[in-house]
Amino acid sequence: MVKRKTSTNNTSTVRVRVESDKDEEILGTDKLELRKLKRIREQEESLKISYRRAEELERQELERLARVSSSFAACRLEIQAAEIFRKQVEALKKRELEKRLISLGYTFNPDDGILLHHHLREKCLENALGFYAILEEADVYAKHPQNLIENYRALAAGNVGYFFTRSRPNETQPDTSTGTDHVQAGHWIFGKELDVLHQGEKVGVKQLLEYCSAGAKTRYKIIEYRLDPCPDNLKDGPWFLCKLYNDGSYMEVQSSL
User: Fold this and answer.
1) Rounded to 5 degrees, what are φ and ψ at 131?
2) Where are the alpha helices (DSSP H) in 104-137?
3) Which stretches make up the NAC domain (predicted)?
4) Nearest 5°: phi and psi at 110?
5) What is the Cα Rg of the chain in Å?
6) Mean pLDDT to the nearest integer, 57-75
C-alpha cells in the first residue's frame, strides 16, 4: 500500500511539472507576442509621425509654390501694365507729332496702292505703323458722315477723313444728329468695285459708297478699301479702310473713280 501511494505521488509530481512547463511555455509565448505587438505599435507610431512630417512638408511646399506663382502672376501683370502704358505713351507722342506736322502744312494723301499695301495690310497683321493719320472707328456706317468729319478734324484739317473699321454698310441705322442741326437718317448705296494695283500687282479692291438722305444723294461719299487677297488666320477678322469726304470740297477724289 505504501509503494502504491508513493507511485501516485510521483505521478502527481510529474503532472505538476508538465503543467508548470506548459504554463512557462505559454507565458513565454505571450511575452513574445506582446513584444511583437509592441514593436508593431512602435512601427505604426513611427509611420504616423513620418506621414505627419511628409504632410507638413507637402503643405509647406504648396504654400511656397503658391507664393512663387503669385509673385510670377504679379510680375506678369506689372509687365502687361507697363506694356500698355508704353503703347499709350507712344500713341500719344505719335498723335502729337501728326498734329504738329499737319499744322506745319504737311498733308496725309497717300495713293490707293500705299493705303492698301502698307497701311491696311499692316493694320490687319497687327504690326506697328509709323506716321499715319487714320483713326479707328467702330461704327463708321452707323454715324452721320458730318459727325465723322468733325471728329476727324481734331486730328487733321480739311474735309477728308481716314478710318479703320470692321463695321459694314447699313448694318445699323445712321444717327440723326450732327454738330449743328438734325438731319433725316439716311443710308449708303454701293458703286462698282475696282481693282487696286501696287507695283503692278493686285493688292485689293476699292468701292465707292454714296450717302442718301430723304430719298436723294448727298455730297458725302466713302471710298472703302479691302485687301484682296486677304492674309490668312487673322485673329479678329479683317479690317477695312474708309476714306470719307464731302464731294463739294474734294472733287479730285471723285474723279479718280
Assistant:
1) -65, 125
2) 112-114, 121-124
3) 102-247
4) -75, 155
5) 46
6) 86
Torsion angle, alpha carbons of 36, 38, 39, 42, to 10: 160
Bridge partners of 186? 213
Determine the Cα–Cα distance for residues 69 and 79; give it in Å rounded to an integer.
Answer: 15
Q: Say which DSSP state 230 is in.
A: P
Higher pLDDT, 14 or 48: 48
Eight-class DSSP state of 231: P
* Residue 83 CB neighbours (<10 A): 10
Is 220:145 a contact under the CB 8 Å cutoff?
A: yes
In terms of Cα–Cα distance, which of 91, 85, 84 is closest to 131? 91
Please state whether 111 falls in left (phi above 0), alpha (psi between -120 and 50) or beta. Answer: beta
pLDDT attached to residue 257: 45
Q: What is the enclosing helix (H) or strand (E) of 216?
A: strand 216-227
Confidence of residue 15 (pLDDT cuts 50, 70, 90): low
Contact between residue 160 and residue 250 where contact means Cβ atoms under 8 Å apart: yes
Q: What does the block give as the cell for 240?
A: 477695312
Q: What residues contact 142, with CB distance under 8 A and at least 6 apart?
A: 167, 171, 172, 173, 174, 175
| Residue closest to 214 by CA, chosen among 257, 182, 242, 238 | 182
- Smallest Cα–Cα separation from 253: which of 228, 221, 227? 221
Please give the pLDDT value at position 65.
86
